[in-house]
Amino acid sequence: MYSLMDGFLKNDPISLQKDILHHVEYTVARSRFSFDDFEAYQALAHTVRDRLIERWHDTHIYFKRTKPKRLYFLSLEFLMGRSLSNSVINLGIEDQCAEALNQLGFEFEVVAEQEGDAALGNGGLARLSACQMDSLATLDYPAWGYGLRYEYGLFRQIIVDGFQHEKPDYWLNFGNPWEIERIHVTYEVKFYGTVEEVEMNGEKQKVWIPGETVEAVAYDNPIPGYGTRNTINLRLWAAKPSSKFDLEAYNTGDYINSVVNRQKAETISNVLYPDDRSHQGKELRLKQQYFFVSASLQDIMRRFKEEHTNFDELPEKVALHLNDTHPSLSIAEVMRMLVDEEHLGWHKAWDIVCKIFSFTTHTMVTDGEKIPVDLLESLLPRHLEILYEINFNFLEELKKRIGLDYSRLALLSIVEEGAMKSIRMANLAIVCSHTVNGVSKLHLERLKTKTFKDFYGLYPEKFQCKTNGVTQRRWIVVSNPGLRDLISKWLGTEAWIRDADLLSGLRDHLDNADFHLEWKMVKKVNKMRLAEYIEAFLTLSLLQVSLDAMFDVQVKRIHEYKRQLLNIFGIIHRYNCLKNMDKDSRRKVVPRVCIIGGKAAPGYEIAKKIIKLCHAVAEKINNDTDIGDLLKVVFIPDYNVSVAELVIPGADLSQHLSTAGNEASGTGNMKFLMNGCLLLATADGSTVEIIEEIGEDNLFLFGAKVHEVEKRRQKRLSNLAPLQPAKVPLHFARVLRMVRDGYFGHKDYFKSLCETVEFGFGNDYYLLTSDFGSYLEAQAAADKAFVNQDKWTRMSILSVAGSGRFSSDRTIQDYAESTWKINPCRCPL
Ligand code: 26Q
């Protein structure tokens, strides 16, 4: 029996309880007198889902009625994590749900823990999409997210003997209560075939005769805003066999083979590609991209045509955002739809296309995504023609502007000639988008002066900075309830949950002793939670960690440029120092628990060796009774969104060590900042802007600045031939030698890892050698600050107080106003 009030579901604890029991009995099909935590989770999730659906409907009816300009956020990755806590908080029914469960003998936290992560993405870019969806909903923007419903999300990392192994993440095994399958929202997506020219109304017209058809089915995921009724949609596509196959089977009589072939269609949306940028040029990846693009654009165009008849209105009604180059086939697809299907002239269609697309790039590297022409020719022959025509017109325009400077023309061309002729997706996205966004000031500067220098010369007005942000709803309210209550108490309001700039008000209490005490207590409780997790997880080594130690954390994808190796080398150095210390000096040492976590792309050998080294070092140090609590090393396996929610609030110090000029933005730093955790970081990506907000004195900065990096690289190469190892700092050389000589075992295995930082081999491209001294100094400064807990707490408070600018609400508002030109559209209560 549903608890209805005026047509709406009621949210008091008794009504919620009734609905939970209803779902236990009729959805989960368990007895209402006997169900476990997981079943309680399922029933509560369905209870919450019902309420989401109500709001979702109201929101969409309201959008339909008011016909605002809509934003379509196109991304191949969304890292949503868990939904339950986030949803009940955004719906404002947290306490009521907890009470309803309590009376049934369950605890909300325990029930929420039953949920698995939705990990339909790799890392930074994908979690950013999730944060941005939360902000779009909260700020009432009429937006839709579009993505793929992978059946296997990002691989699960398990560690065997210190080595990473990948296991498939079949996340739908236990059902997914948060999605709504729309069996009637389906589109045909076509591949292969030929292009033919036909006469139509006396004019020649290109027609694509496809060779294969698969069906895209929509799965809707409601995204509730906080403090608003607005609930927007994240529509994910799954591939299903098309009924077209049946016809073929009927004709050929080959029934069994046709069923087997049908099965192949479903592989398109099967699995998320790990972020291994060398994966380029794989047919399945290209198929995924087009499958996603085609289904999304058919859906978007259908909605547009329901409300409008004239395509001239498209730019006033539709904004299409390309989240990196991955969905940029959309450009060719919109051209194809307008020219081939809607019969608009090329120039008119082109004019429209150039007004609707915007693009954000998430990388510093010049050598971006490319699609081999061979592959396109067979999979999407008509799109290839369109891309050639776009490029031809672009080059013609270009010649008028810059003359016949062929080397420049070749650089700017969308088509790369050469051994493997290919389409440069970034060039395509830049040429066709009205805005090209960088994700931090430093990133934008790089784009202008290096990565896309020539394009910047052509279209300076297109380039904009939209510094990333993260949502304080997930990264404080959901993950750190203690801090949430403390902030609200001292600010005297919860308004900061919708307006993060209000966090600056915490500065008013900077010298208040009670505030300090409560602040430290919150951290302590979070450290306790994290310590319990570590102890439970690492039962094999029977590790116990001291709460008095500094919890020092580096969690992110494993990559050479992120320099986890620098962290490990620092740990080994610390170990050496401890070993050489007398008892008296040891008493003054700040104990540390060094926590590292992150996944290595399955094909990235060096990253995998870094993980193994981390374990080898941990084994040596943790088992050295001489060291005790002074130093512990922990690798947290399978780092994902829900692990992050536990680790980040419990950290004292967090490390962001990328060689300056490599991290486009970084968003982990913002999450730690919001949780009152001090940063030890290089001046890279968005950290530069964090410094602007909180001042250099409130974090531990080290390493070469961007402008010094290039110089140092050159210098190293010219000065330091392999014969001059004496130039390598002593401490660094010693640590390297220990790994090299097998002090941590696995001598042969670690050889190639050591070589990455040795001259004559990898030449230390990421400058560990030259940053090592400065890194150790920053670490010493962190130790010194930690001893003075008053000072530390002040720095911690100032970090949270200065984190307002790094809310994704600020980023989204900026995009909405200056890029997408969309207005809030708030569904009335
Ligand atoms: C490409 C081709 C084939 C298969 C996979 C990919 C692929 C997938 C994911 C390439 C790159 C990615 C992800 C990139 C990413 O996460 N970049 C990060 O984006 C964050 C949000 O803007 C930034 O904060 C980080 O600095 C940036 O590294």
TrEMBL record:
Question: Does the UniProt entry include the keyword Cytoplasm?
Answer: no
- What GO annotations for molecular function exist for this entry? glycogen phosphorylase activity; pyridoxal phosphate binding
Per the record, its GO cellular-component terms are:
cytoplasm
Which reactions appear under catalytic activity for this entry? Answer: [(1->4)-alpha-D-glucosyl](n) + phosphate = [(1->4)-alpha-D-glucosyl](n-1) + alpha-D-glucose 1-phosphate
GO terms for biological process? glycogen catabolic process
Q: What class of enzyme is it?
A: transferase
UniProt entry tagged with the keyword Ribosomal protein? no
Q: Which domain of life is it from?
A: Eukaryota
| Entry EC number(s) | 2.4.1.1
Q: Which UniProt keywords apply?
A: Allosteric enzyme, Carbohydrate metabolism, Glycosyltransferase, Pyridoxal phosphate, Transferase
Q: Which cofactor does it need?
A: pyridoxal 5'-phosphate
> What is the recorded function of this protein according to its Swiss-Prot or TrEMBL entry?
Allosteric enzyme that catalyzes the rate-limiting step in glycogen catabolism, the phosphorolytic cleavage of glycogen to produce glucose-1-phosphate, and plays a central role in maintaining cellular and organismal glucose homeostasis.
Family, according to the entry, reads as follows: Belongs to the glycogen phosphorylase family.
Identification of the protein by name: Alpha-1,4 glucan phosphorylase
Residues included from the entire protein: 193 to 1021 of 1021
